[in-house]
Amino acid sequence: MTDRIESYYSSTYIPAAHRIGQASLALALAMSLLVPLYLSFVLGGWPGIAVIWTAFLIVASFVGVIWLVEPVAYFPMLGVAGNYMSFLSGNIGNMRLPVTIACQSAIGAEPGSYRAEVAAILGIGVSVVVNLVFVLALVLAGQAIIAAIPAPLVGALKLYTFPALYAAVFMMFFFNAKRPAWAVIAVALGTTVLVLPISEVFNIVAAGFAGIIVSLVVTRFAKDDTA
Amino acid sequence: MDDLRSIMNDPVIWAIAAALVALVVMQAFLFIRLALRFSGRFSILSDKEKSVVYKTATINSIGPAVAIFIIAISLISIVGAPITLMRIGVIGSAVFELYAAGNGAKAAGADIAGDMTLQAFTAAVWAMCLGGAGWLVSTMFFTWQLGKAQGKLRKSSPQALLIMGAITPTVIFFVLMMNEILDKKPATPLIGIDKLAAAATAAISMVVFRQLGKVAPWLKEWGLGFSLLLGVIAGYLVSVYMMQGMQE
């Protein structure tokens, strides 16, 4: 039975996930460039290649490293399908990951298991739809909705949602670790990253990378309890 | 500027934005179908577990979606509704898009918040779309490679995946949390005490709900959402208290 799952997973499921993912991302890439192309060449807004190049360099100097490392840093939690889904729909740290861990933890799925994989896909899929409902409401009636909510509430939601979310999700991961020592190692590692002179933009991906590397080191010394 | 506003709402741009949203929904549908087939074939998740996952995902998406909504609203007045739809619903995050748009306009010698020419606006849109493209390209490239590496690890050392799945997210969310609390430029002159209160309350609530979830399973689905709400309330109360303290 286990053999059959493994062979189906690696020879049918994963290749299908790559096909869907690669095709949808390639299509999204082409479609997203249609808008600036339309503005430039149909409506006559072409600002010149020098301007676009300058703009690209400014953006790339800010996020270029993040482009390269983020898909790697989030992969251990998201998996193949989860990576394709999350990077197409965006808002990974503030929405996809919290939803993923909440779903996996609600059914008691261990990280890296098939149960965790299926729960992540179903959870991210639902969160994509919920987010789109909100974004549609935003573009159709955003100003009216904001005007209807009391200003202090808007301010509080804006300021405190993310510190509260990250803290709660942190606790969830902390207590979900199968061995408390792993969670303690993670906090020590996080503290190290915070103490090092790395800007806020980069310290999150630095944390992800450090996490992956230290995990591999810990694996070498840990007793095997997957059996 | 009026001309620009009508260009921002050009029907062709609306159509492309709608097509991108359709693509995201389609992709989610295809992946869900793939996962359900896999699950059905080997009985990975029971029907009950699937409904727990759907419910948990819905509840826990709402809090972040509301906050994203509030941040994204400033983007509408700058780049218009359809481009906001395609940049926030797909690929992007509000903070990055604002940054990219601002610098695109600046490269064309304009201020994103002021009067913009069509050229400056087009430059802003190029900056956002090329910026987003970076993530798409690297995700396409790396997920392929990482999938192979994961397949090998699954065979040679499943323990490594378990440890990685425990340590990596704990480090990431610890740093995300501390970045918020240690905010170098707090929105209010409170040295982040309000944010600390929000984070601490949410963290403690999460632990309490987690324990309670062992006797009341429905709390497993609601715990994160409730913790979030309690954290926001705590942050707000502390900020009101601090403001009063400062006025006296």
TrEMBL record, chain A:
Keywords: Membrane, Transmembrane, Transmembrane helix. The keyword Transmembrane helix applies. This is Small-conductance mechanosensitive channel. It comes from Rhodovulum bhavnagarense. The chain crosses the membrane at residues 20-39, 45-69, 118-149, 155-174, 181-198. The keyword Transmembrane helix applies.
TrEMBL record, chain B:
InterPro entries: DUF5058 (IPR032479). Keywords: Membrane, Transmembrane, Transmembrane helix. The chain crosses the membrane at residues 12-36, 57-79, 123-147, 159-178, 190-210, 222-243. The keyword Lyase does not apply. The keyword Transmembrane helix applies. This is Uncharacterized protein DUF5058.
